[in-house]
Structure formats: C-alpha cells, structure tokens
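Task: complex structure prediction.
Instruction: return structure tokens for all chains below.
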Amino acid sequence: MSALLRTDGVHKSFGGVRALDTCTVEVDEGTVAGLIGPNGSGKTTLFNVITGYAKADAGEVYLAGRRITNSPPDKVFALGIGRTFQLTRIFPSLTVLENMLVASRHSRASARKHAMEQLEFVGIAGHHAALAGTLSYGQRKLLEMAYVLVADPAIILLDEPAGGVNLSLVNHIAARIRELNAAGKTFLIVEHNMEFVMGLCDQVTVLDSGTVVAAGPPDIVRTDRRVLDAYLGEDLADDQEPGEGE
Amino acid sequence: MNRLAAAGLVAVLAVAVAFPFLFPSPVATNYGVYALIFVAVASAWNVFSGFSGYISLGHAVFFGSGAYALGIAARDWHIGGVGVFALLPLAAAVGALIAVPFGLVALRVRRHTFIVITIAVFFIFQLMAYNFSFTGGSSGLDAPFLSWQAATYNNPFYYIALACAVGMTAVAWLVRRSRFGLQLRAIRDDEDRARGLGVHAMRVKLTAFVLSGAVTALVGGVWFLYLTQVQPPSGFDPLFDLSVVLMAFLGGLGTVTGPVLGALIIEPGQLYLTVKFTNGYLSEILLGALFLVAVLFVPRGIIPTGGEWIRRLATRGKPAVQADAAGPSAPQAPDPAPAQEAST
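Output:
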C-alpha cells in the first residue's frame, strides 16, 4: 500500500507560536486515517497547509508522489484533495443544488444529475431547492460533505465531521464514510469524538504541540503512554481494554 | 421563465419600444434616454459588484474613459456626423483595457480596501482628465455635431440606449444562469471556500470586472454623444457611482431585474428634482435620504423583499417543508450497523 498523501517535516509558525513542528504524516490509499490531538495541537493548521489555505514555512506536502507544497487551494482541489471545515462553510445565498454545482467538474448536462445523486447519498436531496443558509447545522455538514464528493477527489479531508451534531447524524456520517471507503475513497479525519475515530479509522496519528507523538492502528495508539499523557488521559485507558471497542 | 414572466417581459419591451411614439415630447424622451443609460450602467455594475460582492465605487472611471475615448478619437481622426457611432466599440475596448490593470491591482484586496482602491483610482482618472492636454483639460471635449431635427433628436439616442439596456440586462440574465455567474455568487458568499472548491477566483472576478467596465465605457460613449460634451467633473463624477450603487441596492443587489427597477425609479426622479428645483443640492439630499430609507426598510432591495412577501402570502398556512418533497431533514432513525461501528 502506498502513501497517497504525505507531509514531510512541515513547519508552520504564527508569529512566535509554532503550530507545526517537523510534522510528518502519511495516509495510505484506500484507508481512513484519523488525526487527533488536544485543542491547539495543529490539526487544522496541518489541514490548512495541505489544502493551500496556509503556507508551510518549511517541509513538503506530496499527493501521490507529486509535490504540492504551498499550491493555492483551487489547484490543490483540482489535483484531487477535497476538504470540509470545522465550522461548516457553505454558500448560504445559493440553493443547495447550486452549492453542489460550484464544485462540479461535470459537463452542464450531467452536473445536475450527478449533484442530485450525491445529495441523495448524504440524505438531503429533498432540500435541493432550498437556500443553503436555511439548513440546520447537521444538514450543512452533510451538504459540505456532498459538495466535496461531487468533484470525486482522490482524498477527502474531514475536519470534525461529528462535531456539534446529534448521535443519529454522527452514525449517518460514519456510515457514509464507510460506504465511500469501501468503494475505494481515502479519508483523513480530524475528530475529537474518540469513539468515532477509533471505530472508523485504520490508522491514527496523534499530534501534540504541532509534533507527531504517535501513529499507528487505533489499538496501539490508544495504549501509547505519550498519547495518554498528551490527550486521552488515564481514565479512558483504564476504562477501555485494548480491542474492546472493535 | 414561466409564461407569465415571458408575457410581462414582452409587454415591457413593447411599451419601451413604443415610448417615443406614445410620449413624443423631447422632455419625455430625454427622461427615457437617461433612464435607459442608467439601466444599462446599473446592470453592468451589478454583473460585477452585485454578483461578486465587490462593491466598486470607481465605475465612473470606465464611464468617463468611454466618453473621453470617443471624444478624442472623433476629434483626432476627424470623424463627424453619424460616423461617430461606429466608435462606440472603441469606447468599450478602452474600458476593457483600463479594467485589466485596474482589476489586477484592486482585486487583490477585498471589502473596504477594495472600495478605497476604486475611489483612489477614480480620483486619479479625474485628475488626469483635468491635467492632460489631450483631454482638453478643464474645458473638456465637445462631441461632433449631429444635424438632426430638434423635435426628434432624442429618438435615435433613445433606441441606442434601449439596445444597450436590453442587451446588458440579457447579458446579466445569461451570466446569472451560467457556471461563471454561479462562481461569482459563490465568491460573494465565501471567496476562500470557493477557491477550495476549484474556483479560479481572480480569473472569474477579473472577467466580470472587464465585462462590466467595457459595457460601462460603451454607455459612457453614448452619454457623451447625447450630451455633446464631457468635462472632468461630469465624466468622472463621484455622484455617478453613488447613484448606480443606490439603484442596485434599491432594486435588489445581485438580482437581474433589481438594478433595472432601481434605475427606472432613481434616474427620472433625479432629473425631475433637478428640473423642478433649481437648487441642485436638493436632489442629492433626497438621494442620500433615499439611500438611508432603502438600507433601513428594504436592505435586500425591492425585488427580493417583494418576492419574499409574495411567497409568504402564497405559503401562508402551509407547512414549512412538504414531507414528501423534502426527504429527511436529518437521518431520522439511526442506522444500526454504523451506530455500532461508530460508538465502539
């Protein structure tokens, strides 16, 4: 299995604050990878560097072996990286369907059909004519996921897909991710919901203060002492035996 | 477009075409010419600013440049009579040519900074018009004399302005329905997000800016020929941009028909007040007051607000979402299998 996405020793500072420090992360093709860490550990900054929303001070980003470091967001998207945001960013004055068509690469004739298919897949096709600004937060999460899917990216970066939504919607999102992954889609997911991450991901990378402190399968990562110290805390390790949640 | 809208459009066009015959007085056709000139300009402004959210207060740069380009070309190439109308495409080309470097500089920044840059460029052009010899300095330029009969002098201008207005409104309609228009509106909502979905924001904004600038310059040329002269304060008039912005805001920013309606209300109103009250400041004071009223009571404009009222009346007493049409607002029942997967 080869690394579809790789960051190699990425540094990023904001003034005197070092957000990423020699950050190296790999995501294998066809897997669901998780990126966890305490608040301020650099997860979203890494997403921003990968997708061109922030420039790396040093280090490299590769997609399928191709160097894409500091490429602008439109180019990164065209190369095959789609992403969602922690706080949903939709186009509120456009209809749900128009939101989908912004990202569509299909011809005019097939774009609408393909967009409706994706809306049906995430479960909000009935709202296609509504203004996106009228959707609930959960529906916006689904819309954001759908309009990333419509361009059929090679890898999808999801920033807290389960954040701030109810349990049934969390389950719905997890199911959609599993379905897409089974069809070959690769994911990198930032999430604080440990049950969501541990139940969904093949590989988990843990960031702390901008540095990777652990990486590996969820079973190994959840028992790693450095991870427990940095993020998970003793309670979770005590409560959950390795493999319990599989 | 439904049948009712199509019938309404045909009726409006028929009235517009018949207007000089229905109201042959030069006073009435003068109102018509100015109103249509501003319908075209407000629509052109709206295609860029209304759709993209970049509020330009520098479109007088294009309007004045179009007027001056036509005047300079007619003077230096000794073109007179109706032949000057052949220079209108040149005015548009000059507008487009100015819009490229103007846009490349101004469109690198957003919001208030963009507005400030457009104002700065506007004053640069006004100063150039005052100080360059080829612009005629503060005396400005005169248009070639057209030996038409006084009683019907306005009519050809009326139809040229009508062609500009209808053409620009049609372009705005096409742009709004196109992928290009969709990208512009996505930029208005969230430019960074649009970029992250593959929209080449700079290219899209610049294209709209150039299109808008070219049409504004062309209409500036028509205005110059109609008025028969241009001077720096009239060609590069700061009130021009304020009027155009108010037209778009009053009618409905970012809609196709809003700026048309706004121009048809404001421009004749301004003319009437200027003629009725010799104190020119009165129309400006009322224009400012109207701006405040529009912002306070119809902040989204007449067309969107009116449409909302009609929708409210039509859907009064009905459920907000039709159960069979809307599908699940969110998954209603947990999916057992993924629930187990995710909760472990």
